[in-house]
């Protein structure tokens, strides 16, 4: 007998772990309206509802470049300490309300200095907001920062050093992001080698809009702990007419080494990396037992949440609560937290949370 299909309410209640979410991609529309009014920034829509629709429609273009353009407005209103702290606090509150128990939230400090803040002050403002959000949640969620360098810029070493300076004060790791084509991760090799020398963790956006070479460089040249998206690893997997599957050398390596894939289904559809949830490579990769994790990427642009992402997967692939638990434990195992802290969240929060939902069916 197959397991019952989980309801949306059960999925919302289930403890969830989020590894790939951009701070500047998850603002509340009303907050953008209010912060824009404070600084005189012109928006494409004047009220929260219309603005929310503009973001999702603009992001739903099938182009990663156009998708990234929507960030001009969110970044514009995050150029002073109080605004950044507010956005960070609300991010934690929204995730906690959605049942997220652990999250790593990334952003590029270099994009928030136009108002005169230093990189260090930007990180401090984000941490202030995260601390306030976690305190308000009453301990229901743990949130850490990932500091991102933009791959088309030349500040990656500076950002990597910033991540190390803050690693005992709320920063869990380092990342690079931005358009992949023409900006390979090896351009930032010195920053990744520095992180390795410092025994620190980092993930790399790779295999989203660009193919296998981006993934190969991220892993074999740069030493990434995780792959941001990594959806194009599917290009190294062949499914024959009889249903048999053959993994190429790189796909085999990724699966054998249990390299986490930070998959963001709805975002991938918007950027053209997949046609639909049902056709998203996450289905086959899960079946083949890659280290798949489920993420939101940009909650505002994709009009999504962790609950929405999981509901979409349940509808497309008929996943059970046990499957969602597997995704969640995968993510917690892959988090940039010390081992004992990861284990405590798995054993004391994730497993009991899912067990209670199963028992209540």
From TrEMBL:
EC assignment: 3.5.4.4
InterPro entries hit by this protein: A_deaminase, A_deaminase_dom, Ado/ade_deaminase, Metal_Hydrolase
Positions of the Adenosine deaminase domain: 15-351
Binding site residues for Zn(2+): 20, 22, 205, 297
Cofactor-binding details, from the entry: Binds 1 zinc ion per subunit.
Residues of the active site: 208
Function statement: Catalyzes the hydrolytic deamination of adenosine and 2-deoxyadenosine.
Record protein name field: Adenosine deaminase
The organism of origin for this protein: Nocardioides hwasunensis
Classification lineage: Bacteria, Bacillati, Actinomycetota, Actinomycetes, Propionibacteriales
Gene designation per UniProt: add
